[in-house]
Amino acid sequence: MKYLRALLVLSVVCIIPRAMLSQEAGKQIVYTIKGAAVDSAGNAVAYPTLSIRTDSTTNNYKARYSGDGNGRFEAEYKSAADTIYITVGAAAKTSYNTTVVLNDNKLIDLGKIVLKEGEELAGVSVTAYKPLVTQTLDRINYDVEADPESKTNTVMDMLRKVPLVTLDQDENIKVKGSSSFTVYVNGKPSNMVAKSPKDALKSMPATSIKRIEVITDPGAKYDAEGIGAILNIVTQSALQGYRGSVRVSADTKSYFNTGAFISSKIGKLGLSGNYNYKLSQNNLNSSQGNFENHSDAAPYKYSENGSSRSYKSNDNYGNIEISYEFDTLNLVSASFGVSRSIYISQNDGYSQFYDKNRNIVSAYNTLSSSNNTSLSYYGNVDYQRSFRKPDQLLTVSYNFGVSPPENTITFSKLKLDTTQPNTLATKERDVRYTKAETSNSHTLQIDYTEPFDSSKHVVEAGIKYILRYNASDNQYRRYNPITGEYDQYDLDDKGNIRKENDMDYYQHIVGAYASYTFKLKKFSLRLGGRLEGTYQDVRFADEAARNFKVRFLDLIPYVSTSFKLTDASNLRVSYNNGISRPSIWFLNPYVDDKDPYRISYGNPNLKSERSHNFSVSYGLFSQKLNLSISAYSSIVNNSIESNDSVDSKGIRYHTYANIGSNGNLGGSFYINYNPIKWFSFWTSLSTGYSRYTNRASISEGAFFSGYGGVNFHLPWKMRLHIGIGGNPVSTSYRYKGTGWYYYYTSLSRSF
């Protein structure tokens, strides 16, 4: 009986849509429309697009079809109208438009249609085919605007579909298998996004985005720092009138997000605003580690450490943007934003030490709680000057980010386990650590582009200056049981007042670049170089003898070529060279000795990493099929890695040094196929291998991740999306991860 009921339900589900479609088609006649698209020389134009309207006053197409690689097209179209309006077009061609009065002749043969080279004339309907994925000399583009799922997703959701971009189970972003990349918004660094890319992108509705660009091989125009890859988010321009959105999201991991977006354009003035609130917390995150001491003089042989961590985070951030077009050649835009974060954490740990016979020689517990409040301001002002000559452009940009001093207060306690011996003579302690950090950055940039000979030759040049200032003001105070306050100076192991390592860090970067691009019909070449000078000035308030200054001068070459194999496919090969400067977190010499047998500190003498990057990619882009295959490799010979040591007392010291070399090899595969009008599917796969060498060891790892989904166009303007993804393999020279997967389904209706 159960099977009979299930069969009955299934029959009804299948019959109702068919009945609806039958009623709609009752008065319609099936026509066959065919023809062939050729260029001015009579050669076939591959993959033309056939579009049909029933209203000549709008671009609301009733149906669109794709031709084949030989320019031929043939489609069946049902219509009850008396007249239809047909447009045949292709990329970089002027469209052909014709009006057809329907009669008893069910065959509409358009014959050979000549599509001329050039741009559309004013007043002529433009029928442009928009594949989801395209590639140019230095980047892969994902057209978010053309993806139906963008209507209900966030930018973070759309990233899963972008070639060469992967997300792990915690939604940490990687590009080309590496977390060393830079996020830009509209071609410029974004302070808001750089602070926490995954949180910022999760809060942005995909409807506010035009496309996502993976700049796999950043040219000479871009900063050498973080040049492994750039993730560029291109936002929608404000449209005449008003539009907006409100969103709320939550998950089972205690994550909640809400926000609003609004934009408007009145005449030449464009305005947009965005506000987001995020609440996240983790009630328990545990870790455990074991260590074997090979020093015969140390008072212990083995140690075991464990910790459990919980946190709660509240974030508010928003920004406004304004633009004004003085005329068709001059545009001024500006944006300003502010973010406020409150972060509270609790970390409890334990340490146990054993002799060679596995007898406990010492044991203690550590308790640490922190409260951090941060405030940041950021913004930019841009002037863009276009010229009568197409593609000639001058831009002047100023960007700033300011984080005034905010205190992070940490209470740290060490309590002995009195049930165990204390052979290591560890002392109990109760300390309050107050850290005030300041971070400011200012950037001025001028870029100029000059095309020659109808843009067959393009010269680009520019200069850039960056000033960064970071400061760390530390204070250590020990608990005074007499007063009940933290009013005693903390002492080191020798009984001296502990150094607080207050530091001011100035970084000046001056860069200049030039590049030349040569374009033929089926071949493009870009050569360029960037000269970048870096001056670092580090000053210590409590010990001037430790002050130091560092100067770097780096020349970064770049070359990229692209071959157009057919009208619908191309091949790209490129090489670039980049650097990665150590952050203040790696440079800060502050000594963290909350655990007296596990001490960590930064290294102010670190050098910049230098990488060599190679890539090759193939793309096929047609009306029904998008295919992108990429391979890449990266080599770093002086990577910054952890440098651990153990002294004669068995105390472990953790810092950083340029002691590593690593190589990465990987690739990606992306396909989006639309075999029939109402159904499509997509798949994105990424894999990589890494090998690491330092003074003491050689290690390696690999990863694989995959995402995919199917889309159905249903009656009543409804769409059904089903997707799945995961990462069954995730190992590297630094860690070994467990496999994970996810799946989702969504149903949407357009109005």
Question: What is the topology?
Answer:
Layout: H1 2-24, E1 29-38, E2 49-53, E3 63-66, E4 72-79, E5 83-89, E6 96-101, E7 107-114, E8 133-135, E9 140-142, H2 155-159, E10 165-167, E11 173-175, E12 182-185, E13 188-189, H3 191-195, H4 197-202, E14 209-215, E15 230-235, E16 241-251, E17 255-266, E18 269-292, E19 302-325, E20 330-354, E21 360-386, E22 393-416, E23 429-452, E24 457-480, E25 485-489, E26 503-519, E27 523-540, E28 548-566, E29 569-580, H5 584-587, E30 592-595, E31 598-600, E32 609-621, E33 625-646, E34 652-676, E35 679-693, E36 698-714, E37 718-731, E38 736-737, E39 740-749
Parallel strand pairs: 1-7, 12-15, 31-34
Antiparallel strand pairs: 1-4, 2-3, 2-5, 5-6, 8-9, 9-14, 10-11, 12-13, 14-15, 16-17, 17-18, 18-19, 19-20, 20-21, 21-22, 22-23, 23-24, 24-25, 24-26, 26-27, 27-28, 28-29, 29-32, 30-31, 32-33, 33-34, 34-35, 35-36, 36-37, 37-38, 37-39
List key phrases describing it.
single chain; 751 residues; mainly beta; Immunoglobulin-like; Maltoporin, Chain A; 2 domains; 24-stranded mixed β-sheet; six-stranded mixed β-sheet; 5 helices; 6% helix; disordered N terminus
